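Hello,

Our lab assistant flagged a job as stuck in the queue for most of the afternoon. It eventually completed. Since we weren't sure the result was trustworthy after the delay, we are filing this so someone can double-check. Below is the sequence as submitted and the structure that was eventually returned. Let us know if re-running is recommended.
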Amino acid sequence: MKIEKLKTCDGYKPFDGPVVLVIMDGVGIGEAAEYNGVFSAYTPTLDGLVKEQMSTRLKAHGRAVGLPTDSDMGNSEVGHNALGAGRVFSQGAKLVGEAFESGAVFNGRSWQEIKKRCQQGGTLHLIGLVSDGNVHSHIDHLMALLRRSSAEGFERVRIHGLLDGRDVGARSALDYFQPLDRLCQELSTGSLDYRIGSGGGRMVTTMDRYEADWSIVERGWRAHVLGEGRLFTSAVAAIESCYREDPAITDQYVEPFVVADENGPIGTIEDGDAVIFFNFRGDRAIEISRAFEETDFTGFDRVRFPEVFFTGMMQYDGDAAIPAHYLVEPPAINATLGEYLCDAGIKSYAISETQKYGHVTYFWNGNKSGYIDESLETYEEIASDRITFDLRPWMKAAEITDHVINAIESQGYKFIRLNYANGDMVGHTGIVPAIRIAVETVDLCLARLAKAVRKAGGIIVVTADHGNA
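-- returned structure --
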């Protein structure tokens, strides 16, 4: 798509400073209740901006951001896609749901290659997040894959299920793994053998993003591929045992486990097998995809590199072609703000800490990695702390603010965008006192930024991508 030249709006008056867009990740408008971190926090800066400046409310969930229904909650990915494009595109959840409804998911070359492998004796391995959160995946898609595999006569299927506890209830894993286990038993008739082979919590197993901690992916690799980990007779037994041993643990932090019988682990991944990573969202799918596909991989020691046909639910990075094979075409997002700015020769600066760096770059740019024009863009990443964020709820907001103020004072950029990760990342812990501190930290930083923008003669725009705090 050719980018149209930007035109000056009627009544436009030039100003000296930059436009600074502040994305307060997860800081939404919710119920006036004590459990609402935004409501309970002391936020004089944000309150003053809403009261004294132009303000409005935006929908950040459901159809307003390209999700299938208005009951689907928003998330950081779709929020940044919409902000960066200024338009709404059908998102992965909707596209994948439609592909299953029409049967198109089973018509492509990838499924045909999977079918060929499995009919030649290979095992089909299904790896992904087991819940109905519809942010990274949906259990209905996994169930549909299992039923189709049975209909096609695939003799051996193994599921490597990741516990959610983040986009759904904190200790709700059994609500998903028990019916999944029942379906596997139902389908295991005659020569068919369908079982859960391994699993673990999403924040400690497999689903790292932005190369923040490759050990998370390594733990998943060792459980899913090598069959290394704490052994249990079933996934349900593993989850129940974890709950008994630690009444405070939430699903997302359950350590990796492996299901074994009298002969050992039942689900190791071997040469000749096929693997589907059934998450549709890209950020936490890219690293495990690379581990399965790259011959010169350096993220961690894989120990062995099985020859498999690896397929993603979608292609998670179109520029880098990760993965090479996929079941559903990703959303085609084009004509983003970044493209318009580069075409107009406008210099821009984007910054966040590791947990949201990809959101102000990759997702902002329409799920495209790298620079649009490196001569006009500066991207900066502040390394996130490697601890649970309720223990340090201020995160890297102050450091981000310092860097943005330096960028403003340099007079080198006309557009600056930044993401404060606090509201979302601390919000996911569910610990209200920590969430309150997180939101108040963002408010303090907003005060500093607003002062710097006013001094430079610029414009500050404050918004959020979705609500979670």
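-- support follow-up --
The delay was a queue issue, not a problem with the job. The result is valid. The CA atoms of residues 138 and 247 lie 27 Å apart. The longest strand covers residues 193-201.
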